[in-house]
Structures are given as C-alpha cells and as structure tokens.
Design brief:
The chain is mainly alpha-helical and about 160 residues long. The protein has a single domain (about 5-85, about 125-155), classed as Arc Repressor Mutant, subunit A (Orthogonal Bundle), CATH 1.10.10. It is built from seven helices and two strands. A two-stranded antiparallel ribbon has the order 1-2. The chain is elongated and about 55 Å long. This is Fe-S cluster assembly transcriptional regulator IscR. One of its GO terms (cellular component) is cytosol. Keywords: DNA-binding.
Length: about 160
C-alpha cells in the first residue's frame, strides 16, 4: 500500500489542530514544532486543506488555522483526498499497465484492497482519534517537550 508522506503529514497536522484548536487558531509554526514537519511543507498542505474547506485561516496577531467544522464531521479519508493523495495498493499506481502494459493477474485484488482501505479511513473521524488514550498520551508528551524547548529559548535570551 502506498500512502506517502504528504497524506501522513496532512493527517498528523489535522490531528494536532484538533487537539490544540479548542482555545482558538493554531499557528503552523506551533504544529511544525510539535510534529517536526517543515513549516513550508505545512503551508503547502494547509493551502490544499483550506481549498477543500477542512480548515479556515485567521489572519493577524494570534492568527493561525481552525477546523472548518466539528471533529466528528472531518474524516481521515477527506484529509487524504484533500491533499491529492491516493491510497493505492496496486503496483501500477492504478494505471492498469502492471504487466508489460496490461493488467496483471492480481490487479483487481489490489484495487479492491485500495477501496477497502479508503472505506476504512472514511469511517474514522478526528473525534475518534482525539478520544484514543494513546493519542492523548503522545500529545501530552509533545506538549511537555515543547514547553521545555520554550523554557530553554527564554533562559538563553
């Protein structure tokens, strides 16, 4: 199965936004710091997420991004689709030219698997992910580490 960095990072960033956006807009710099994703890469991803009405941007001091709708209304498959990422288990990338320009013996099996994976991701909302205890634990660890990093910057100044 192929789900590239683009799809993984988009889902990670949206989950971070879901976890931290309850008090207002979240800056991409904050997401970048917590998730170790390049700021310029996040800017590209969030432009696509905004065009697909998954996030809204807030300009000015204290600005950033907010989810465009409730946690239970945004599904992982929508995020993956928004960044033009395909969940594809075929060896040919879905082009049907797997074996010397023709469909291979197992092409339809892998197409069916790709559809099943997409359907699975269509059932998982950000609300489902936010409620998972392991997600909460990891988020708490990241927040604590970010707080330590902030304290180091202040003490060096």
């Amino acid at each position: 199965m192929r789900l590239t960095t683009k799809g993984r990072y988009a889902v990670t960033a949206m989950l971070d936004l879901a976890l931290h956006g309850h008090d207002g807009p979240v800056s991409l710099a904050d997401i970048s710091g917590r998730q170790d994703i390049s700021l310029s890469y996040l800017e590209q991803l969030f432009a696509k997420l905004r065009r697909n009405d998954l996030v809204t941007s807030v300009r000015g001091p204290g600005g950033g991004y907010c989810l465009s709708r409730g946690l239970g209304e945004i599904f992982v498959a929508q995020i993956v689709d928004a960044v033009n990422e395909a969940v594809d288990a075929t060896g040919c990338g879905g082009t049907s030219d797997c074996q010397q320009g023709e469909v291979c013996l197992t092409h339809h099996l892998w197409c069916d698997l790709s559809k099943q994976i997409h359907n699975f991701l269509s059932q998982i909302s950000l609300a489902n992910l936010v409620e998972r205890s392991e997600v909460k634990n990891i988020s708490a660890r990241q927040d604590a580490r970010a707080g330590q990093d902030d304290a180091l910057v202040v003490s060096r100044a």
